[in-house]
## 1
Amino acid sequence: MTEITSIPVGKYFTSREGHRLHYHEAGTPVAGKPSVLMLHGSGPGASGYTNFKGNFPVFADHGYHVIVPDYLGYGLSSKPADFQYKVDAQVELLRELVSHTGAQTLAIVGNSLGGWFAIHHAIHYPAEVAKLIVMAPGGLESPEKFVPEMEGLRELFRIPTERDFSIASMRNLFNLFMNERADISDTVLSERLEIARQQPVEVYTTMGGTVTTPRLGELVAPMLALWGYRDKFIPYRHAQILLDHVPDVHLITSNRAGHWFMIEEPELFNQACLKFLDR
């Protein structure tokens, strides 16, 4: 029986503890090349496909093995209400999935929450990570120090907490992700709305983990950071934290982008990432 969903169905993996993770995969592991693990951000209805559908086929066409998962609680993955959605727990599930695909070493691409996961992974398991690409990563500062000033982040947490999944609220949230307000299509709304309504509030109320800044100096993998100057979710000043503490980092900034760099600047993103990976 064909599964009917708001996003394309890829593959499924069941973890040792019985959690079912959905993911898209392109290609197979290539000797001498890291597999590319693309980690999406948070937000109602988020998934790997919606974050990276304009990017991961380009990486695959360039000869990379690409893995695009939905975290537990997101996309088409299981959504248990009794799970603590902390960074360390999510990263361990992702490591299980990566092992299942046969990937040996990784180039991790992470947006927002995915950037937090990527940095956490590289700090705790440096031998597994060859390169890091992050877009406005979370986890660089305690939330109370910046959430009040970020309009987008406040709305991101309000919607699932109040269960306000109206078309108007979701459309407004997606516009906040971008620098310039866009005509958010019905396709974008439908890709996320159905998933958002299935997510338990615990996905947001138990989210979090240890701030990574004190350990950034331990990173071995070189990093490429891309940041939209008009970001309404993670303050642009956090880019300076990376510049100050990461041993090997290059920063690309766009004043035409907000929080969705890979969606707002797809050509710049794809070209810069592939150049960095091929270096």
## 2
Amino acid sequence: MTRSGAARGRWIENWDPEDERQWERGGRRVARRNLVLSVASEHIGFSVWSMWSVLVLFMSPGIGLDFAPDDKFLLVVVPTLVGAVLRLPYSSAVTRFGGRNWTVFASLVLLVPTGLTVYFVQRPGTPLWVFLVIGALAGAGGGNFASSMTNITAFYPQRQQGWALGLNAGGGNLGVAAVQLLGLLVISVFGDTHPAYVAACYLPLIALVSVLAALRMDNVSVVRAERGAQRQAAAEPHTWWISLLYVGTFGSFIGFGFAFGLVLQSQFSSTPFEAASFTFLGPLLGSVARPLGGRIADRWGGARVTLWAFAGMAAGILVLLAATRSGSFPLFVTGFTVLFVMSGAGNGSTYKMIPAVFARQAESAVTSGHDASAAFARARRVSGAVIGIAGAAGALGGVAINLAFRTSYGELGSGEPAFYAFLGFYALCAVVIGLVYLRGERTAAVVPEPVRVRSSRVG
């Protein structure tokens, strides 16, 4: 492992996390440092991306912004959609520019939507289209996830990727809960007429994370060499099966996270303070559950844990249906909390499936006579690309959830039709796991022996 000069932007050559000797002699320390800063950058990105789920709770005639519920759901949909679309180019950008270089840029660019939000969000009479444009720009924060996950995949050995990717993603997902807690704090201290305070808090944080990433993160040459991997990944059927599953897990987490406050207002006519008092709880628990889901999947297999997650999510939907019919606010919040926790765990376990599936493919290729180093290099390259594709698909699931709520509450006056649609989709995902993946995990090791490093230590 060698580091090139600063002129090339802190590139690490000959990086191989599967080499246990290199890992123990400094590789673990390098990986942890990059993971910490990656989590920080992704956390800020998620906060900016999901900020409109908080700001819409402030929009009322009291600050001169009187928008209908349909308009507010639209303000939540737009950043979700843009963030989903940007995930593919953001994932590819890491292979072209390097993880450190792209993290610095992706963090700095968030100053634009955040600054515009501070300027416009308390200006009475601002038209809806202005906020839609700012929300679209805030979607850049959603793209940070794909570039961050693709980058961190290269830093950790396959045997630890469930935990590392879960921690990276879970720390980023906490940005949803953090901005909602900040919204609650602003309402508690200053009232519900100062939404600009929420956005203003992130301006110095964005600048700080950008500087730290520039000073302390690294690019690795193995990532830069992986151009064209997305084309290879797109030709793999597993890419699309896993993407479907991620629509169900992450799509649920981010979709419910963005919509929860508006759903409480639509279902129970909650005040901004009442809605903000509960919206942070689900995303917080779901974010904590994500790395735990990844770690459990490291032991029991991604497909099995993901199936459990979908069973739990289906149970949460049944609780919501019961709460809707009985008009029980506590039961409704309980159902959503179950959904957040199980979708968070499913996020981690679904991402664990990606390297495991393609590592098994590589093992099969080796037993058929193919070159081992080439087979496992391809598995690593394609796995990184699938992470970007699945991340984009999952975020589109969040768009679908918010559109379903917009239609259900706006046109039908009840959330029940949306809940039944979600329940049907979770059943479909469970069938896919059983038919495509679960039988494979029962007959093969989650981590194939050719790439497994025997060690009792977990980094």
